[in-house]
Amino acid sequence: MGQIIPIEQLTRRILILRSQRVMLSTDLAALYEVEPKALMQAVKRNAKRFPQDFMFQLNAREFEHLRSRSVTAKSHLNKSLMKVRFAPYAFTQEGIAMLSSVLRSARAIRVNIAIMRAFVQLRQMLLSHKELAQKLATLERKYDAQFSVVFDAIRQLMNPPTPRRPSIGFSQS
């Protein structure tokens, strides 16, 4: 069975809000092929499964920021946020995993698996970039130490020579 949705398409829909990686309820509804209202009704019927660290509603400032950003950028947000009158909900990875127990369709299961893979791939990419940055910092420290002798020598050569005082007294030539 092939990939239901390309991972690249899913990773573009993962946003950082309140220092967490999340997906919006409007995007999730589109992926699950259900109406956003139906998605949220299912969530609200099972409210105990969705504590605040699994899901939260965007505040007015966050919602307006996303809307204004989507107007200037041609993105999937443009379509999904412009139709919405109320601020959407943001689901963390755990909240998205919990959606699979609430939405019981075959598509929901396949979409959830694809989303979990996208989150894992994103995490691996971030770790890879972190490791690369650490290696670069190590190299910079190493080469700064090796070249500090060269830089010191260049600085000494750049300084004007100290003038020699004429000697006082007799000189024997």
Characterise the protein shown here.
The chain has 173 residues and is an alpha+beta fold. The chain contains 7 helices and 4 strands. Helix 4 (60-72) crosses helix 5. The longest helix is centred in the last third of the chain and has 53 residues, at 106-158. The protein is elongated, with a radius of gyration of 30 Å. It starts with 6 loop residues before the first helix and ends in a 15-residue tail after the last helix. The relative contact order is 0.13.
Which class best fits the helix and strand makeup? alpha+beta
Order of helices and strands: HEEHHEHHEHH
Rg calculated over all Cα atoms: 30 Å
The pLDDT mean sits at 79
Largest sheet: 4 strands, antiparallel
Low-confidence stretches: none
If strands are numbered along the chain, what order do they take across the biggest sheet?
Answer: 1-2-4-3
Fraction in beta strands = 5-15%
The helix tally amounts to: 7
Overall spatial form: elongated
Instruction: Write down how many β-strands occur, each being a DSSP E stretch of 2 or more residues.
Output: 4
Percent helix, as a range, is 55-70%
N- to C-terminal distance: 100 Å
List keywords for this structure.
alpha+beta; four-stranded antiparallel β-sheet; 7 helices; 4 strands; elongated
List the helices and strands and how they pair.
Elements: H1 7-12, E1 15-17, E2 20-24, H2 25-32, H3 36-45, E3 55-57, H4 60-72, H5 76-82, E4 89-92, H6 93-102, H7 106-158
